[in-house]
Amino acid sequence: MKSKLLSLPYIFWLIIFIVIPTFLVVLFSFIDENYKFTTKWIIQSGDYIGILFKSIYFAVISTLICFLIAFPIAFILSRTKKYIQKTLLMLIILPMWMNLLLRTYAWMTLLENNGIINQILSFIGLGKINIINTPYAIILGMVYNYLPFMILPLYSVMTKIDKSIIEAAQDLGANYFVVLSKILLPLSLSGIVAGITMVFVPSVSTFIISRMLGGGGNLLFGDIIEQQFIGSTYNPYMGSAMSLFLMIIILIIMWITNMIDKNKEERQGMLL
Amino acid sequence: MKKNLSIIISFFIMITIFSGCSSNNNLKIYIWGEFISNGEDNSMDIKKEFENKYGVKVNLTTFASNEEMYAKIKSGSAKYDLIVPSDYMINRMINEDMLEKIDFENIPNFSNIMDEFKNPIYDPTGEYSIPYAWGLVGIIYNSKMITEDINSWYSLFNEKYSKEILMFNNPRDAFAIALKYKGYSLNSQNPEEFKQAADLLKKQQPLVQSYVMDEIFDKMINGEAIISSYYAGDFIKMEKDNPNLKFVLPKEGTNRFVDSMVIPKGAKNKNLSEKFIDFILEPEVGLSNIEYLGYSTPNKAVFDLLPDDIRFNKNLYPDSSFLDFNTEEFIHLTDVFLENMDKEWLKIKSGNN
Q1: Distance between B106 CA and the closest CA of chain A, angstroms
Q2: Do A112 and B222 count as a contact with CB atoms less than 8 A apart?
Q3: pLDDT of A267 higher than 90
Q4: So what's the pLDDT on residue A115?
Q5: CB contacts < 8 Å between A and B, how many?
Q6: Using 50, 70 and 90 to split pLDDT, how confident is the model at A272?
Q7: Which end of chain B is least crowded, N or C, by CB within 10 Å?
């Protein structure tokens, strides 16, 4: 009874800010201006399927890059001395204290053709890089902004992997590759799944990164949803339908990733 | 169970208490960001002055675009006593019966408004809006990189400046430039003229460095781009940081935007809103405000008080021959047309022809 009482404010919060809005999104997707049932918004959302695939493609690539960068970092982090660990963790979290908008704006000025990065590059005799206003800049922005969300869950599972397990494997003749594929990866799977979720979901629905770093021409699905609400045609029905579309796709992808996690756990259970 | 109930009830009571903060002495204003002088740079803190004068409380909430404002009001999620949107949006709100008629008896200072701003195209009967500030869209270029004379919209479509051009990141302003360049009205809903404008913008797309709104400040000041188009009032701010920047009003004519004060339907404090409008129209208050904004004033009494370098600045106050024959204000177009424009704009920007 007591624990139930304590959870009341949370449940209250949940209902007002998550359950009701989600219900409204679903409702708005299926009614027209006269509150009659319609599927026209869902069908019209299909016009933007190409852009949706582009968004998913970008999000998959940036999630992959995040993973490739974060995995070694998280491993090294989990193996260093405690006080160094704390400092390094702090350094990873520190940029997150700043608003995403500001961090992205900073990249915009850094990457510009006459920006600081290019000035330094040409000063030391290397050519300029022209990636601002291209898809590369968008991916860079996504990776930069969401990398900590991949590192942190990976780090938290890896600190729980006992050093002796790795040593035992090496004792038994496992080389680095085998240690990585048979020990580290399976044991950190729950962290990997959490990390993928936390990077993929904001990446696939972002609109501010693509607008600032993509030069306005590289639109993603999030930009089009935003346009339905604060573009010149105010159409919350269409915006809701598109959001619903995106939500369902995210749910499917999350379901698949979780299945991988679950399968592995079941297999491990059988082995034990 | 009783305890649970009491907690739930207390939650609701708290919510009603917090939302009940708006009393009779509370004026809620919804206005563009940084669009009212606030005491910085020796300007007048209008909010505070008004509060002291009438013993009331003023709440300022800001928006970043007319569309954002419209979405919030239309969804009914917020109530305000006074809003300051732009021309075409006022036109739309009048059409949709979202505005209250203003009682001009309560606004004696309305006589300060210049005649040319009375009964504008977006508010033909002049019953709903009182102009706050106005300005013109023109070409901004970097005179260090561009030595030739710029005087036409053509320059924004010139291949010579490929990848150095910035363009508005909203369909209405972008189409207005294309329509004006072709010699049509920027409120044109003629399909043939629309198609010509769209084709022009499609051809321009490979030349455009990026489509921007406020990002333009950094990009023009740093010399990242050398030619763009933006509002005259904002140019004054850019010029301070980069004196090489120049502003020109294209000979084909341009858009004159007017931001006006309106009272939305359901305003709780209509009387106080009208007092505030009257306060803004006072010469001293209006002067401080317009100097802070950098835009142009529709208020004759304020205009007469302006320092000479602003009063005779042809970019802010062009000759009436230009104003009368070469500038147009936006009005609201039909929803179907705007939707079509949005779709076309998406294709243009992403280079999908």
Answers
A1: 34
A2: yes
A3: no
A4: 87
A5: 75
A6: very low
A7: N
